[in-house]
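Need a sequence for this fold. Nothing fancy.
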């Protein structure tokens, strides 16, 4: 076990993501305390540090560690905002079936101890058509009932909050060029939430090719859920826009985007218009959030993609 905090510095990707947050806000305070938080978890759970995983995620830090008996594992540190507890609840519900297996959780510290996967090998290492097939196969098996007394928010509740933020951003001067697609996204969201009739399932919430990693006990396992309950079409939205920069750079991007919607909807028996609607809403919501944070390039890319749908 190490006592060297300089080996526990957050990855640059995480630091860049949080650099737009207020200096005295909770996100930056959490970031500053990460080395000490990590050191305490290593000590308390008797873990041996190998290294910080790079480049890592944009909202958490992952340490590659070993258990007291030498078994490899991964320690994930999230903001102490309930994220770790919800992720643990979803992973426990899946119980290792097509998802990473949870070993331990400390919700107050935002700490999750997980089985070790091959963090440098995701579905994005495959050719895009093969990756989409594998992703759909994994996602289909994650759609199980959430169970009695579950702690997860519904898609309707979650997207109501996103829509409220989107309406606020819409009025800002920097959002003037995006108002047409923002209005379409808001109308679609309201209609989709109002007429959802499908039996709610446990959803991954942020399912894309980068969140499906190679494992030893199974070829591909999902990681990083932001679980919700609701209709399956919502869970396909990020898959529709996967590798969006490559898609937009190729000829016939609009037709390719619409083919993705059709193929995913056909392969998983999900209504095509609901997949399109949620994909458009989520792309616009994410794109405007990026613009609000000053990340104009990424924001404009997502809004351009939304316009193709």
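Here you go.
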């Amino acid at each position: 076990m190490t006592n060297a905090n300089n080996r526990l510095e957050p990855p640059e990707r995480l630091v860049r993501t949080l650099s737009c947050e207020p200096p005295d806000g909770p996100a930056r305070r959490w970031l500053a305390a990460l080395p000490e938080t990590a050191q305490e978890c290593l000590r308390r759970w008797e873990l041996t540090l190998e290294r910080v995983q790079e480049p890592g995620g944009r909202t958490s830090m992952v340490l590659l560690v070993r258990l007291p008996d030498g078994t490899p594992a991964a320690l994930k540190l999230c903001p102490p905002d309930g994220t770790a507890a919800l992720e643990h609840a979803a992973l426990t519900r899946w119980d290792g079936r097509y998802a990473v297996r949870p070993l331990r959780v400390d919700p107050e510290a935002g700490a999750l101890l997980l089985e070790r996967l091959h963090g440098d090998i995701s579905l994005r290492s495959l050719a895009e058509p093969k990756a989409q097939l594998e992703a759909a196969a994994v996602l289909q098996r994650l759609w199980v009932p959430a169970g009695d007394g579950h702690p997860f928010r519904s898609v309707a509740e979650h997207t109501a909050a996103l829509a409220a933020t989107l309406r606020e951003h819409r009025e800002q001067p920097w959002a003037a060029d995006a108002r047409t697609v923002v209005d379409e996204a808001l109308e679609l969201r309201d209609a989709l939430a109002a007429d959802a009739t499908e039996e709610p399932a446990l959803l991954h919430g942020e399912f894309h090719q980068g969140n499906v990693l190679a494992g030893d006990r199974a070829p591909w396992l999902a990681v990083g859920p932001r679980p919700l309950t609701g209709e399956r079409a919502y869970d396909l939205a990020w898959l529709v826009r996967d590798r969006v920069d490559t898609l937009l750079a190729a000829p016939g991007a609009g037709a390719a985007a619409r083919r993705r919607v059709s193929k995913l909807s056909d392969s998983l028996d999900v209504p095509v218009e609901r997949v399109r609607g949620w994909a458009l809403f989520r792309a616009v919501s994410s794109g405007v959030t990026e613009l609000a944070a000053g990340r104009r390039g990424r924001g404009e890319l997502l809004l351009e993609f939304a316009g193709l749908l």
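For context: Residues 17 and 94 are 30 Å apart (CA to CA).
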